[in-house]
Amino acid sequence: MSFLKFSSGRVRAVGYAFKGMVALIRREPSVKVQVFLTVLVIAAGFYFEITATQWMFQLLAAGLVLSAEGLNSAVEAIADFIHPDYHLKIGHIKDIAAGAVFFAAIFSTIIGLIIYVPYILALFD
Ligand SMILES: Nc1ncnc2c1ncn2[C@@H]1O[C@H](COP(=O)(O)OP(=O)(O)OP(=O)(O)O)[C@@H](O)[C@H]1O
To answer: Model pTM?
Structure first.
């Protein structure tokens, strides 16, 4: 395969991925909520002037939750497509996919608390 063909294939793949990211933000309510929360903590980061290390942890946590939420939406879409009717297995599959998001959300919340509780307490000093 020529380098040009390989490169154009990769560029096209990035285009599809970007299309998927836009679709997630526009169509998935849970992703919309996470995007809103991400914007909120970014604003908080600027307001409290958090450190570079804190920015890295915050952005990593936000990216992890958004990514997990997106994959959860994909699992839900596959489940609904292959079996639109009620089925215990489908319920279990959706529950564990949502559980994966919950893991990311719990640890991201803890990171958020570690970063912001000291700044918030300092406001009352
Ligand atoms: N086809 C099904 N068969 C059995 N249980 C289902 C089925 N669809 C949904 N459920 C149950 O309902 C829960 C919610 O499913 P749903 O597809 O509505 O996801 P959701 O959490 O509302 O999605 P979102 O993350 O977009 O808010 C699942 O976790 C599962 O327990």
So the answer is: 0.90
